[in-house]
Amino acid sequence: MFGLRLDPIAFSLGSISVHWYGIILGTAALVGLLLAVQEGKRFGLSPDFFMDLLLFGVPSAIIGARIYFVAFQWNEYKSHLLDVFKIWNGGIAIYGALIGAFACGIIYFRIKGYSFWRIADICAPSLIAGQMIGRWGNFVNQEAYGGPVKESFLRDTLHLPDWIVNQMNVEGVFHHPTFLYESLWNLAGLVIFLVLRRRPFLRAGELLFAYFIWYSLGRFYVEGIRTDSLAFIGADWAASLMNAIWSPMKAFGFEQGYLDPTYGNIRVSQLLAVLLIIVSIAMIIIRRRTGAASERYNDPIINYKTGMPAGVEDKKRSTPSDDTTIEHGTGDSR
To answer: Which stretches does the entry tag as region Disordered (predicted)?
Structure first.
């Protein structure tokens, strides 16, 4: 027993154990929903629209996250197939969750008749808020941490409270609280997005690309500190490039987390982060130059199936038309 580790089980109902991991992920989804619902009201989108999106999106994200993780760890799961379903023990990948969520979103928005870019923009702050909260699930499970550090670094340099320091004590060794680094980075991103979406220069789709850029930038540098990165063996020049981009972190006293060279020399999340940043910047430039981003974030959202702004059709359905109004008279004496 090392330190005062938090119990990953919040409470039990008979033989059913409720894990903090699930509670935290549920809270993350709820906060994301509330943010989207509140912003959606500005454009006439009903809360039900986002609640249905959540009902489809969360399972899609969890499935995508788990498939992504298991695919890169298949050698560990192929002999224990039932462990594939034990997500309460951790082992989900954010990028896999994004793939699952966006695949679901594309289909859902098309069915509803709305532009993917317009709705995805509204959901961008929800995504980063959800990730900000969700990282605390890693904290409770003592996973996704960084390389070893001295206890004094956590207490005296970072000035962390005891309950975080104790949880970073894994089998007698203290580690970088990478969950905290990423959570704080996402918190800063959330504030930026909430301000940015009120700026008149913002075009449709650009808040989503800002999310990709901001999240990927932070994830690239935090990922380099971790010791459990999904990785693969790639070209030496690519590995050297990743290390060179990460090297400024050394000036702040950080060292890269250990990565077994026989397992891989390129961290998957770092490579994806770089590609997402490049693609997102390129998309912003291309869409502006080609006129594909003619709509602004604050423009009304049009349902391309009805040709009406969001919310107008619902109002028309709830308001009786003139020809259905019943007139009550005294009768005709003729």
So the answer is: 308-334
What is the rounded distance in angstroms from the CA atom of residue 320 to the CA atom of residue 257? 65
Q: What's the CA gap between 127 and 276, in Å, rounded?
A: 16
First to last CA, the chain: 98
Q: What backbone torsions phi and psi does residue 52 show, to the nearest 5 degrees?
A: -65, -40
* Position 3 in a domain: no
The 10s digit of each residue's pLDDT in 198-230 is 999 999 999 999 999 999 999 999 999 999 998
Instruction: Tell me if 135 is assigned to a ligand binding site.
Output: yes
pLDDT in tens, 243-295: 999 999 999 889 999 999 998 999 999 999 999 999 999 999 999 999 999 99
On whether the pTM is more than 0.85, the answer is: yes
Which own/partner pairs from 58-64 qualify as long-range (CB within 8 Å, at least 24 positions apart)?
58/29, 60/100, 60/101, 60/103, 60/104, 61/97, 61/98, 61/100, 61/101, 61/104, 62/87, 62/92, 62/97, 62/100, 63/100, 64/96, 64/97, 64/98, 64/99, 64/100, 64/101, 64/103
Report residue 249: phi and psi, to 5°: -65, -25
Burial of 331: CB neighbours in 10 Å, binned 0-12, 13-18, 19+: exposed
326 found inside a domain: no
Instruction: List 148's β-bridge partners, or say none.
Output: 175
Rounded Cα gap, residues 133 and 30, in angstroms: 10
Q: Is 91 left (phi over 0), alpha (psi -120 to 50) or beta?
A: left
Residue 323 lies in a domain: no
Round the CA-based radius of gyration of the chain to a whole number and report it. Answer: 24
Tell me which residue range forms the domain holding 230. Answer: 9-314
Is 330 within a domain?
no
